[in-house]
């Protein structure tokens, strides 16, 4: 992926979420790049939304046990590890703690889903235009074409999680985020999207 695209995508993530920056003492946008590389290390397909040639949102999905793009995924995974272990991150364990807290799911759901919504984000200045809905519908369509039957969506109170209710997703679990990584002690949610026909929008 071109560097200017990576920079813009990291900027969107940085402006939206903490991603462990407070706890890890990481410099600048380091945590945003770590998260971006982790997303790319598991994402099967990524969809970008542009306005006036500027990336204003993107979404992607992962498919469990996929054999596609293995080398590319390993490269991005390596880049994430290099950043975590670099001098740019003061408390490296805090990054792992943050990731484990938000990515952790109950053991009884380990083999329940075919994959996951790896990312969905729209620039705050471009919301209300239907971009999030179009991106998500495109991801649902691509995942269905990829023979996925259902998809896991992990979200929390820092996101507009009710958006997923409106998109035909079903909340199946609700737990609390440890105050170790969230000062507010947020609630986190696991949604399921059963993939069906006719869910593609233009992006």
The strand line-up of the biggest sheet is 1-2-3
How many β strands by DSSP? 6
Through-space gap between termini: 19 Å
Content-based structural category:
alpha+beta
Total count of helical runs of at least 4 residues: 7
Shape: globular
Low-confidence region ranges? none
What is the makeup of the main sheet?
3 strands, antiparallel
Q: By CATH's scheme, which homologous superfamily applies? A: Gcn5-related N-acetyltransferase (GNAT)
Structure, described:
The structure is a single chain. The chain has helices spanning 3-16, 21-24, 30-40, 70-84, 92-103, 131-145, 162-166; strands at 45-51, 54-63, 115-122, 150-156, 170-176, 187-194. It has 7 helices and 6 strands. The mean pLDDT is 90. It is of the alpha+beta class and 203 residues long. The chain has a single domain (3-194), classed as Gcn5-related N-acetyltransferase (GNAT) (Aminopeptidase, 3-Layer(aba) Sandwich). It starts with a helix and ends in a 9-residue tail after the last strand. The strands form 2 sheets. It has a 3-stranded antiparallel β-sheet, sandwiched between helices. A 3-stranded antiparallel β-sheet has the order 4-6-5, with helices on one face. A hairpin with a 2-residue loop joins strand 1 (45-51) and strand 2. The relative contact order is 0.16.
């Amino acid at each position: 992926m071109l560097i200017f695209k990576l920079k813009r995508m990291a900027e969107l993530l940085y402006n939206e979420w903490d991603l462990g920056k407070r706890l890890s003492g990481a410099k600048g946008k380091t945590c945003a790049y770590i998260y971006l590389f982790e997303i790319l290390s598991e994402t099967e397909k990524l969809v970008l939304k542009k306005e006036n040639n500027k990336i204003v949102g993107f979404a992607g999905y992962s498919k469990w046990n996929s054999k596609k793009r293995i080398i590319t995924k390993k490269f991005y995974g390596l880049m994430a590890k290099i950043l975590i272990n670099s001098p740019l991150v003061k408390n490296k364990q805090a990054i792992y703690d943050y990731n484990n807290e938000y990515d952790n799911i109950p053991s009884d759901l380990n083999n329940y889903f075919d994959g996951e919504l790896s990312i969905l984000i729209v620039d705050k200045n471009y919301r209300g235009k239907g971009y999030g809905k179009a991106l998500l519908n495109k991801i649902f369509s691509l995942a269905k074409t990829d023979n996925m039957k259902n998809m896991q969506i992990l979200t929390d109170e820092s996101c507009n999680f009710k958006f997923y209710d409106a998109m035909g997703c079903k909340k199946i679990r609700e737990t609390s985020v440890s105050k170790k990584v969230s000062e507010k002690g947020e609630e986190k949610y696991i949604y399921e999207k059963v993939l069906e026909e006719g869910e593609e929008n233009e992006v």
